[in-house]
Write a structure and sequence with these properties.
With 82 residues, the chain is mainly β. The chain has strands at 20-30, 45-46, 49-50, 53-60, 66-77.
Length: 82
């Protein structure tokens, strides 16, 4: 897969014995100053499939760019795997 500037990987600890499909997840993400100005271009993918995403800016840098994001999404979490 081609590396995209600003792309990050999200990992979850092993949580359950069985697979959890469309599990509600939420995370907070810090963003470097000047890197992101709004949430319009945010995309979240799992195994090449785009996931539904709700993104909220919770703080901004002095220049107005995003400092912290709170993301809510549905992800498939495989059982017994991190």
């Amino acid at each position: 897969m081609k590396e995209i500037p600003g792309m990050i990987d999200i990992y979850f600890d092993k949580l359950y014995r069985n697979d959890r499909m469309a599990e509600p997840c939420s995370i907070g993400i810090p963003v470097r100053e000047g890197e992101l100005w709004n949430t319009d271009t945010l995309r979240l993918y799992q195994a090449g499939r785009r996931l539904p995403l709700q993104a909220k800016v919770t703080s901004r840098h002095r220049d107005g760019s995003v400092r912290f994001l709170f993301l809510r999404f549905l992800a498939d979490l495989p059982g017994n795997k991190g």
